[in-house]
Amino acid sequence: MKTILISLVSLLSILSADAYAARGGSGLGMSEDHSMISNGQGIVAPGFWNGIEGENPAGLVSNQTTKLQIGAGSYSGNQNYGSGAILLGNGMLGSGVEYQNYNHYSGTGSTQGKINWGLAGRLQPIMTTIGVSSHYTLKGGGTSYDAGLLIEPVQRVRLGFMIPNFTQNAHTFGGGFSYLLEDAVELVVDADYNSTSAAGNLKPGITFHTDRVQASASYGLRYKGASDLLIHQGLTCGLGIKLAESLLITYEYHGIPDHRLGLTLRFN
Prior knowledge:
Layout: H1 2-23, E1 66-75, E2 79-89, E3 93-104, E4 111-123, E5 128-137, E6 142-151, E7 157-163, E8 172-182, E9 185-194, E10 200-209, E11 213-224, E12 234-244, E13 247-254, E14 258-267
């Protein structure tokens, strides 16, 4: 399956490369510096690296250079984790692979490893990006796969679609809408729905960015049912700073609570 996906995306990239070059710009119409962090739940506006960690994997196409990233965070107050990732891309194809190591504070205090990878390709003639990601938990934890789409039907408008864990439990669906209000402001609404439990969540958000700074804030609301699905409840916010052309630092907070800190070294 992996070989087929890679071959298909590569072929489509070659066929659409001339059209892409003629139109100019970068993947998703956004510069890499404007994708340092995600907005909402990352369904329609994922960061350039979040696609390998459970957000829309189509966002990996925002990678236009080679990058090394190290990260650390804490989750739900009872575990912390560290990660290391390699991200590659040219604006038409994007990919990444990451290793995470979790340390659980509760219970036995055991550690657990996880390998994430993702691949995305842009079909420039129809302004659509497709992506897939995989999450493999070591020590017999199993593998899950996510699939996603990003579509730009008209200028300044983007639609996102995502199915998490589609090989085992394809009952949760995510969708999103974003509008570039002006060059420095993007409005986002993400939503999800579970066809089995009839539960759903809504998450509006906003992003501001300059040449060196990106900031986002969103809030998750349950509109139906009682289950937390793809979208986290409560406040999510993030800050990305370009310290230098080759050095980026990011911080994200999710209302679980989940704190994530990342340092990215970029090679042009």
